[in-house]
Amino acid sequence: MRDGFKNPLYTVEIRVFKDHHLRYIESNDGTLFSGHRRTKILAQDLPEWYIYGRYYKCWGYMSTKGITDLLYVPNKFVNHFLKDDWLYISYGGKITETVPPEDGSYYDRYTGYDETVWGPEIIDILQGARLYSDYDISGIIRQIKEKKDWLIHEYPDEFGPERWSFDVDRRFAAALENGHLPKFYALTLNDYFSPSFVSGTKRYYGTMDEIKAFIDALDYEKHKSTVDTFREFTDGNAMAVHNVAYIERPLLESVTVITSAFLYLIDEEWEFKNIWGCIYKMRVKSAYSPMPDTLDRVYLR
To answer: Could you write out the DSSP letters of every residue in the chain?
Structure first.
């Protein structure tokens, strides 16, 4: 149902009681959790239909593919929009209302659901269900409009036209932002730092937009092979190769970012010794760059 991913929800963190306090714990290598069980899955491994958000008070990713039924239950007891509303989700059946027990004891009002969502993530999950499960959400959109009208009528001081504006149709017409980080690639080129009598390669890392900007800046006559191979890659040939260090190598390879850091330099000076032992004095007025610390599960320095 979810193309190899068994669970509808993977979280970045878990909540645990430790030293008499409730704490949020993340894995040290970026892997996600399923319940309280740590998996080998990274956020970048997840398909696009897993939507990032806050679920059960933890940040994570919920699947919007394979949804078979949805039930939206607005809360009309408090002056909150979506915050205390509930969306029930089923991945394999129908959600039905249960019969209250005769003794008046506590019971779950609905059955047949697999997950629940509340808050602003309701809209994101609905958009995902429409896009990836071909689910008709028009009825729920009408319910959300009714909740909006109810708030305006019951709480004009907080939700009157001069104080609050929310266009339901415009929000659902907007493109779905799934919250995934951009994919990173390794670009393999000749290592021009190597001595003239040896050949070597060097990998440069970046998103597709960053690599495209780099390729566009190259002189086509001097780098014809690299530019043509990049165009071949973007045309759909993920195995496009070019000649680097006298060997045919893939131009681009997908890599996984596990952690990242931000490099910022200002008025820095240092000495650089090249391979021949010559020392150059280097300095930079200012420079900054988001830098991946870890790629392809190999730590970089």
So the answer is: --TT---SEEESEEEEEETTEEEEEE-TTSEEEETTEEEEEEGGGS-TTEEEEEETTEEEEEE-SS--EEEEE---SSS-SSTT-EEEEESSS--EEPPPPTT-----SEES-SEEEETTHHHHHHHHHHHHS----HHHHHHHHHHHHHHHHH-HHHHSTTT----HHHHHHSPP---PPPPEEEEEEE-TTS-TTS--EEEEEEEHHHHHHHHHTS-TTTSHHHHHHHHHHHTT-TT-EEEETTEEEESEEEE-B--EEEEEEEEEEEEEE-TTS-EEEEEEEEEEEEEESEETTEE--
